[in-house]
């Protein structure tokens, strides 16, 4: 299934001329607006968006509507690579001097890789969001499925897709193909997260036809 098919099957997007595309640094401002949906302490900052969309733009996908006034950014999935088998707090941050760091080398501080690890074998989702106007319509689930389809379609190498979520979102992510592996050790933004790896990526990521 393609990302387009995932959106087409969502009743909440019917007639809205929705599409997804990879994000870039040109989308930083609109990303900040969309991210304001989250509680302030959990939001990705403008600087961190600039970092993520500079270092690994191919791992982030935006949801847009074509309108008479241009493309409207209504949601996104933000990702980066990591070597760990679960999301770590350090992977949620960014190196203080990232602009002077080699693009193909991880930044390691006190034995922990900070932010995007270009040599990482796993893909970490750090943000899944749609603006309030479009919530409660099944659009978030369609966006998550479109992201997984995008990763597969583009053959982005990843043994696993990983994310963390609060307990009230566990059923949502399970319905989108993720598995609850229990409380996460990650204490980002105060903790209280659960580890939810995607349950079907490894077979095709390793080149096995299923």
Secondary structure blueprint with pairings:
Elements: H1 3-8, E1 18-22, H2 28-35, H3 46-55, E2 61-67, E3 70-82, E4 107-109, E5 112-114, E6 122-130, H4 139-153, E7 161-165, H5 170-175, E8 194-197, H6 201-205
Parallel strand pairs: 6-7
Antiparallel strand pairs: 1-2, 2-3, 3-6, 4-5, 7-8
How would you characterize this protein structure?
By secondary structure, this protein is of the alpha+beta class. It has a single domain (3-205), classed as Gcn5-related N-acetyltransferase (GNAT) (Aminopeptidase). The chain is 24% helix and 23% strand. It contains 6 helices and 8 strands; from the N terminus they run αβααβββββαβαβα. The protein has helices at residues 3-8, 28-35, 46-55, 139-153, 170-175, 201-205; strands at residues 18-22, 61-67, 70-82, 107-109, 112-114, 122-130, 161-165, 194-197. The strands form 2 sheets. Strands 1-2-3-6-7-8 form a 6-stranded mixed beta sheet, sandwiched between helices. Helix 4 links the parallel strand 6 and strand 7 (161-165). It starts with a helix and ends in a 5-residue tail after the last helix.
């Amino acid at each position: 299934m393609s990302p387009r098919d995932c959106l087409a099957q969502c009743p909440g997007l019917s007639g809205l001329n929705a599409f997804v595309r990879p994000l870039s640094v040109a989308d930083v401002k609109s990303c900040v607006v969309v991210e304001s949906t989250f509680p302030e302490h959990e939001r990705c900052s403008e600087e961190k968006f600039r970092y993520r969309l500079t270092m690994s733009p191919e791992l982030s996908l935006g949801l847009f509507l074509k309108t008479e006034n241009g493309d409207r950014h209504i949601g996104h999935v933000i990702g980066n690579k990591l070597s760990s088998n679960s999301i770590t707090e350090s992977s949620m941050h960014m190196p203080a001097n990232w602009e002077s760091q080699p693009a193909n080398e991880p930044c390691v501080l006190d034995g922990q890789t900070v932010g995007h690890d270009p040599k990482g074998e796993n893909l970490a989702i750090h943000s899944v969001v749609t603006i309030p106007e479009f919530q409660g319509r099944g659009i978030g689930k369609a966006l998550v499925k479109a992201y997984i389809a995008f990763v597969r379609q583009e053959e982005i190498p990843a043994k696993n897709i990983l994310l963390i979520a609060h307990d009230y979102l566990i059923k949502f992510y399970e319905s989108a193909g993720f598995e609850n592996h229990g409380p996460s050790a990650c204490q980002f933004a105060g903790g209280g997260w659960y580890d939810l790896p995607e349950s079907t990526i490894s077979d095709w990521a390793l080149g096995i036809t299923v």
